[in-house]
Amino acid sequence: MKRRVLMIQEAMGGCGRHVADLIAGLDPERFDVTLLYGATRMDDYYRETLPALSRRARVIPCADLRRDISPRHELRALLQTMRLIREVRPDVVHCHSSKAGAIGRLAVALCGRRYGVKRVFYTPHAYSFQAPEFSGKKRLVFTLLERWLSRCVTDLTFNVSEGERRAALDAGLDDPSKFEVIYNGIADEPVPSKAEARAMLGLALAGLPDDAPIVGVTARLVDQKDPMTSIAIAARVIERRPDVHVVYVGDGPYTSRMEAYCREHGVADRVHILGYRADAERVVSAFDVYLLTSLYEGMPYSLVEALRAGVPIAATDTTGNDEVVEPGRNGLLFPVGDVEAGAAAVLRLLDDPMPREAVVGSFRDRFTLDRMLETISAHYEEAAA
């Protein structure tokens, strides 16, 4: 008999990628999946993935599952989720991201377990109380809500990094036995060579010398990624190494500010902001160094993709990043917001490249998709036994 799984999620970023990979990898002979997703914040990746998801699961949009706090929308999302639980009668409810985690788990609490729910799992993809933009009062409210939901509704939380798990324990959310680290994984499959990846970028880098060093970023240009620190690091690196080019693959609200910064600092001809590309995880092979300046993370897919491509990483020393980057083996860490240290890390990796075999090996040790799928599906099986 198939296990019925209801997933509830926000449809963007690493959370969207994680759920898409999970649904694609679950055996359809063993699992019957229903997915309720927030329809208002879909990014391009998720929008392009949606048709494939629809072939593997029953997919239901929820226009009221939003990031911003809105009691009216949250009540509607809660009622829609409760109706779905009564209809599907899932063996497993698995909630992804803080907002979906609150709505989904509260729906289970209000429905009780009388509609067949045997286990409730939660993957935060970075807790809301970790975000630096929230005030002390909001952070306290989010912490108390997470604590109540964990203790009263959640059977097990899957943290995507040990740092995220430590944050949960430091906040006193629940007993340590109710948290398990399951790293985000990606498929261990061949990637383009550096020459092939540069050719894939095509006209975007037309005229660039074949031997020009490229520092690359594949990330959304949003607050969490601290793009203004990233662009300042780019300018500092180019000042010291005029042969270097910096490539951004991703879009977001900071694009125009970054372009203006490049013009003001005379590096517009060396910095290429290409916008969103569906092939981002493949063109990363074109880079000599990968740069990420996040303020906080859960477990960033972009870093794992860089490792698979054999590209060493210069990243901020923050939760998530510090578990992917092994200084001396696959990259270097530097303090959050520190432009000088970030530039120094990038320049060091350019001047003294790390062996590709060591970088790829650090991916295969911990971050394969098969490892992630085996662990989560085993929990689903156990819950529905």
From TrEMBL:
Which keywords fit this entry according to its UniProt record? Answer: Glycosyltransferase, Transferase
Q: Name one Pfam family in it.
A: Glyco_transf_4
Q: Which InterPro entries match?
A: Glyco_trans_1, Glyco_trans_4-like_N
Coiled coil located at which positions? none
Superkingdom assignment: Bacteria
- Domain (Glycosyltransferase subfamily 4-like N-terminal) spans 12-187
Q: Report if keyword Protein transport is assigned.
A: no
Q: Indicate the segments forming the Glycosyl transferase family domain, all copies.
A: 208-357
Q: Which Gene3D superfamilies does the protein's record reference?
A: Glycogen Phosphorylase B
GO molecular function terms attached to this record:
glycosyltransferase activity
Q: What is this protein called?
A: Exopolysaccharide biosynthesis protein
Say which species the protein is native to: Bifidobacterium samirii
